[in-house]
Amino acid sequence: MSGARLRYLRSYGLLTAALVVFTVSLVLSFHKVREQQETILKVSRETRWNALQADYELQRLLRALDAYALGYGDVDREALVERLDIFWSRMPLLVEGSDGELITAMSDAESVVPRVVAELEAIEPDLLALEPDDRAAQRAIRDRLSALQEPLRRIALQVNTGTGLARAAAPPPSSVLGQILAHPIVHLGGILLSGGVFILLLVLETRRTRGLLAATEAAQAKAGAAEARLRAVIDAVPAMIGATDREQRFVFLNRQQARAYGLDDEARAIGLRPTELGLGAEIERLDRRVVETGAPLPSAEETRRDPDGVERTYLTTRVPVVDATTGEVGAVVGVAVDITARKRAEAEVQLAREQAEAASRLKSQFLASVSHELRTPLNAIIGIAEMLLEEAEDLKPDERLQVEPLRRIHGASMHLLSLIDEVLDLAKIEAGRMELFVEEFDAAALIGHVRSVAEPLMDRNGNRLEVEAAADLGAMRSDQTKVRQALLNLLGNAAKFTRNGRVTLAARRLPGDDGGDRLEFRVSDTGIGMTAEQMARLFEPFSQAEASTARDHGGTGLGLALTKRFCRMLGGDVAVESERGRGSTFTVTLPAVLRGAADDAADGSTPGRDGAGARRVAAVGRGRAGAAR
Amino acid sequence: MLRRSVVALGVAVALLGAAATASAAAPCDLPRPTGRVVLTVTGAIDCTNAPDGRAEFDRETLGALGLSELTTRTPWTDGEVTFEGVLARDLMAAVGARGTTARAVALNDYEADIPLADFERYPVLLAMRADGEPLRVRDKGPLWVIYPWSRHPELGDADTRGKSVWQLELLDVR
């Protein structure tokens, strides 16, 4: 780039220099020629005549001399001297007066004339003394006079030709530079040199232009290739790209769009409006809106019937192309992606989900009703068993053989009933039918009640129950039954998975950070604990930490799932911390006052879908394992 | 009409009177030259002193017509020169010239026609001396027709230069 510029500047400098030399030479030459012309005007015919006449008179003198010596004609000494005088009289004319001034300027007259006069003065006595028959003397005089011819002729020549004119026009300049500049060779040289430089520059420029032309062609070819490549890319984009001008006529469209319009050649659409291509008026309307508002249209779904008769859905975006100079919208670029297939897939997914949800609801309803239907005969069995047991206990001891089987029937039935109740509760929750009964109660009393119920459970595995209830637990407004059931579930679990250990129930009131206090119930055991994996699945229905635990410990696997759902329904949550072999700690946190529950309670809520306020179960594993139920 | 006739009559009378005076005032006693003849006058002249209607003069008889001085520049000399010689009009009167033109012929065969009116209008001199020195042939003598250039700038034209004949030897009046 800089090299090219340098070359450019250099050729410009050369051109300028050549131009200057050319101009100067021309001006100098012109000046010279004009000076000469002026001189020519000044040099009249008289002047030229005078210059010539000196030589002419010398000729006549010589002829007279010959005639005198040879004795022909009537040339006597007097006539001869007169000829000498006449010739002599020409000398002052070469150096004096206005003519003399010019002649002097143009010729060597200034030096020649005194020499000639001196010679004439020298010759005069000889001529006066010349005898007609003295050939030797005559020849000597003749030679001396003849010698004067050459300088006089040169003067005549100088005055009558350009050489003298040039000298007269420009007296030799004193400075060397002036002499050089005044020399015609310099002018001619200048003109020739600058002309040569012109021609050289012309040749160079032609070559450079040819180079530029080649470079331009290469650049054009490159640009053409780039355009073709860009075009290929745009055509390959799996989207319809088109641009319309201010009058909604197509100025560009890629192959995808042309195909969608049923065109083989996209060029056929250029200059046409969408309606002229058999498309709906909507496209034109939207394009016009972008032109009028100058604002892009955000992505929108457009469903339309294409020229091939198929209805398709497009995701379209329209963007204005603002002309940088006018600031007006010059064109509208539209990008459309055919999302027909995606829309269909989305619809299918939506349908599948709705079907799945309906099935799930159906299942829950089924379970709820089945559980109910199961409980009815079971209650009958329990009632009859109790009745028979009472009757049997009234019998004599030796007649009480049936008491133990009846007790077993009663116990098993009660267990079955509790299982059914749990299944029923879960089913109710899943079916969205679980109801809350919110009331105000004393938390300490609740703890006392839970303790009295849980204590007998502890005895079975030789465990000890410790209760650490804070003095300021105060009142709670919640569903008392469900709080109790959640705590009993956790205590039952702890008792079940701990042998000869300690189970602790701790309760305290936490000052609320946002809208009300909360109550924290902590159930800790010294049992077998759980792994992180076990904890992760802990609160899912029908899940026990290990399949084997069900065999060892019994249970439905619904207890924790129910606990979690109860806690979530009550606006709180349950978390677990555990380590394999080190026991587990379940923490239930519930709001002291269940807000809005009085209204919502009647309808209940669906824990499965309600995630907004619910905190996730924080299974804080700390890399250790825990027990499962 | 009457006035114009009177003027015309007056002019005619004056011309007749002048012509009568000229012819009457020609005593015609030109002496014969004794020295070398420097000037010959021929043509329409009333007074002659030589055969074939010629009037010849040497330096002496010419000078006898009355010498005048004229100081002027000339186109052929540097600076002003004081010439001495005979007024051309005196010579013309002396020879009783009747024509309008004098053809001047020089030693070098140069010829020029000089209107006699020039001699009346200007003190044209037939110079014999320049700055006191007699004009030799080599000094454009013996006679040189000198116009008063210094006093009359209009004489600086080529025509006048042509009439300023040097080395004059003959005047032919026509």
Structural account:
The complex is a heterodimer of chains A (629) and B (174). With 629 residues, chain A is an alpha+beta fold. Chain A has 20 helices and 13 strands. In chain A, a hairpin with a 6-residue loop joins strand 4 and strand 5. The longest helix of chain A is centred in the middle third of the chain and has 55 residues, at 340-394. Chain A is rod-shaped, with a radius of gyration of 67 Å. Mean pLDDT of chain A is 80; it is low at 597-629. Chain B is α+β, with helices and mostly antiparallel strands and 174 residues long. Helices cover 28% and strands 30% of the residues of chain B. Chain B has helices at residues 2-24, 59-63, 88-95, 116-121, 158-163; strands at residues 37-43, 55-58, 67-72, 81-87, 101-106, 111-115, 125-130, 133-134, 144-146, 168-173. Residues 6-26 of chain B have low confidence and may be disordered. The A-B interface holds A 44, 46, 57, 82, 84-86, 88-89, 92-93, 96-100 and B 74-78, 107-108, 136-140, 158, 161, 166-167.
Note the main attributes of this structure.
heterodimer; A: 629 residues; alpha+beta; 14% strand; disordered C terminus; B: 174 residues; 5-stranded antiparallel β-sheet; 5 helices
In short:
The complex is a heterodimer of chains A (629) and B (174). Chain A is an alpha+beta fold. Helices cover 59% and strands 14% of the residues of chain A.
Distance between the termini of chain B: 37 Å
| Number of separate helices of chain A | 20
Biggest sheet details of chain A: 6 strands, mixed
Strand order of the largest sheet of chain A: 7-9-10-12-11-13
Number of strands of chain B: 10
Helix content of chain B: 25-40%
Main β-sheet description of chain B: 5 strands, mixed
Radius of gyration of chain B: 17 Å
| Topology of chain B as a string of helices (H) and strands (E) | HEEHEEHEEHEEEHE
Report low-confidence residues of chain B grouped into runs of 5 or more: 6-26
The chain-level structural class of chain B is: alpha+beta
Cα distance spanning the termini of chain A: 82 Å
Strand content range of chain B? 25-35%
Greatest interface (CB-CB under 8 A), with counts per chain? A-B, 16 and 16 residues
Using only CA atoms, what is the Rg of chain A? 67 Å
Residue fraction in strands of chain A: 5-15%
